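Budget justification aside, the reviewers requested a transparent look at the raw inputs and outputs of the sequence design task funded under Objective 1. We therefore reproduce one unedited record. The lines immediately below are the structure tokens for a 252-residue chain.
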């Protein structure tokens, strides 16, 4: 588990170092730069595959996303730095959230978000209520960036869910990065660790820009955990495919 987290840290720091070096080079010798492609601006900069950046939508802009046909999310820019979202799913999810962007400087943004709602609803009146908050820092611009974040969540269910308990807390830390490698293509990597349950997740894949305001994502979500029923640290793992669609409605 520790080696996986170190690997993601290494990727993110190398990516941000490359961003910083590129920016320094452009500032010092702008006349000598010849871009190998004309980049299309990233329309989907508020989120990665699973986690959130510190960026928010501009005022009155709308973002609609879907993941694996099961999950959907709609977001609206209340102001240039405040965004409201609603998440739904085929398993009964209904969660509202607010995210606030704090502009530190051109290449450093901070963000905070709060969420509340229903995480799950299945037959026989089985419901999981959910509330939580996140804080994140994003380095870079909307094209190439890296985000460090942490989240604290509380859930209460009407049935035994984890370790025969009906309410529990989740705490996580995450690292996410994206880099443009072609006119329409980005690579994305994320690592998420839930330290109070020894669970690691994340995502890795590519994002393709379509018609400047739409994006398709293809990747894989690894999932690993330590079995608490045995004395030794037996790490179990699996992987889930991810297919996402995002569209941004620019209303300016």
């Amino acid at each position: 588990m520790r080696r996986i987290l170190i690997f993601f840290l290494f990727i993110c720091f190398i990516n941000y170092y490359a961003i910083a070096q590129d920016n320094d080079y452009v500032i010092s010798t702008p006349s000598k730069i010849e871009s190998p492609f004309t980049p299309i601006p990233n329309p989907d900069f508020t989120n990665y595959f699973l986690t959130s950046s510190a960026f928010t939508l501009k005022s009155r802009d709308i973002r609609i996303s879907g993941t694996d046909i099961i999950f959907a999310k709609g977001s609206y820019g209340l102001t240039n730095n405040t965004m409201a979202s609603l998440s739904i799913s085929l398993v009964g999810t209904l969660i509202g959230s607010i995210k606030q962007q704090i502009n530190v400087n051109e290449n450093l943004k901070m963000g905070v978000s709060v969420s509340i709602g229903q995480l799950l609803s299945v037959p026989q009146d089985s419901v999981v209520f959910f509330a939580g908050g996140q804080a994140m820092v994003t380095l870079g611009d909307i094209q190439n960036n890296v985000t460090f974040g942490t989240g604290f969540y509380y859930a209460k269910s009407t049935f035994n869910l984890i370790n025969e308990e009906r309410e529990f807390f989740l705490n996580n830390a995450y690292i996410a990065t994206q880099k443009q490698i072609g006119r329409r293509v980005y690579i994305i990597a994320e690592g998420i660790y839930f330290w109070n349950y020894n669970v690691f997740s994340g995502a890795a894949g590519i994002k393709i820009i379509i018609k400047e305001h739409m994006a398709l994502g293809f990747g894989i979500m690894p999932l690993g955990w330590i079995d608490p029923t045995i004395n030794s640290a037996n790490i179990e793992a699996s992987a889930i495919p991810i297919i996402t669609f995002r569209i941004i409605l620019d209303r300016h």
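The chain has a mean pLDDT of 85. The helical segments are 2-28. Computational costs for records of this kind are itemized in the attached budget.
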